[in-house]
Amino acid sequence: MAQLKIGEITVDRVIEAEGAGFFPGYIFPDADPDGVAAEQDWMAPDFLDPASGRLLQGNACFLLRRPGMTMLVDTCVGNGKPRPSSRTWNNMQTDWLDRLAALGVRPEDVTHVFNTHLHVDHCGWNTVADGDRWVPTFPNAKYLLPKTEFAFWADPANDAVTGTGANDGCYLDSVLPVHEAGLATLVDVGDRAADDMWFESAAGHAPGQLTLNVQLPGERLIFTGDLFHSPLQIARPEWSSKFDVDRRAAAERRRQFIGEHADADTIVLSAHACTPNAGRIVTHKDGRTIFRLLKDL
Ligand SMILES: [Zn+2]
Fold first, then answer.
1. Dist. CA 122 → ligand 1 center (Å)
2. What is the Å distance from ligand 1's center to 243 Cα?
3. Distance, CA 260 to ligand 1 centroid (Å)?
4. Is the pTM value of this prediction over 0.90?
5. Pairwise CA distance, residues 249 & 261, whole Å
6. DSSP one-letter code for 236
7. CA proximity to 252, closest of 237, 231, 265, 264
């Protein structure tokens, strides 16, 4: 997405990787081919590659800037992290820090980091290697970590319980070092990052996932993390992702969210939607709720 600018706030995306990703039927086990085909009219070509039938997905961090604040929302996979559950993410190397620098931000400039949840693709750049240690990448930042997530992943047995490699060791190399450095603040539903910025529950995908809401005059921005893995779920909230730890709760929260924000002055910023990214939930002519990019409104 091009830079989003509303009032004093700007939002950019710092992309780690993106392109044609999962087949809908793989990531959404309940999705049937006819159901997916019925959503092609609005999904293609921005959210679904019509040639391959794959979802267009990305892994990106949001950079929110306003006077006195430089915040990163979800910090992708990171470099050089051992991730035995994923061939793509294991020991990954990208120039993500250079991409952040290209936007004029040095690590020491970052004032806040917020992880919507503590899965491996949302907190990786929290730390970088320093010899054989992992140290905070952003030495001056206040790291805002969901309290329930922090407690849940502290028990290594829980990664095995979820069975998806969702954490894959990242608690130890990307979360704990930040806490031990004294930079972590545990946050919960209703807590605020600023007077007009607060957290709401998006539990289901992960036990303590939070959204970040920013209320501007006449417009709300919501960073939704993995409440939606693809805009497809805005038409089909019942199709939970195979990575959702509690699929029923995740579907219920999606329905509620869609009900609250359809046709409202709300801009949705989703962690894995491809470029361009920012858009709104709108009611289609036949009554379905769908996702429309800002550029198309
Ligand atoms: Zn994710």
1. 6
2. 9
3. 23
4. yes
5. 18
6. -
7. 237
Cα 248 to ligand 1 centroid, rounded to whole Å: 18
* CA 232 vs CA 180, 235, 238: distances in Å: 39, 6, 10
Residue indicated by tokens 């250079």: 98
CA 197 to ligand 1 centroid distance, Å: 22
Contact, 231 vs 281, CB < 8 A? no
Q: Name the domain count of the chain.
A: 1
> What is the rounded distance in angstroms from the CA atom of residue 250 to the CA atom of residue 154?
22
Q: What is the CATH number of the domain that holds 180?
A: 3.60.15.10
Identify which of 42, 45, 49 has the alpha carbon closest to the alpha carbon of residue 286: 42
Neighbours of ion ligand 1 (CB under 5 A): 121, 226
Q: Are strands 184-187 and 192-194 parallel, antiparallel or unpaired?
A: unpaired
CB atoms inside a 10 Å sphere around CB 213 = 18
Q: Where are the alpha helices (DSSP H) in the chain?
A: 24-27, 33-38, 40-43, 96-102, 147-153, 157-162, 170, 176-180, 232-235, 247-261
Reply yes or no on whether the pLDDT at 193 is more than 90: yes
Report how far ligand 1's centroid is from the alpha carbon of 285 (Å): 31
Mean pLDDT of 145-154: 96
**Average pLDDT of every residue of the chain:** 95
Q: Domain range holding 272?
A: 4-296
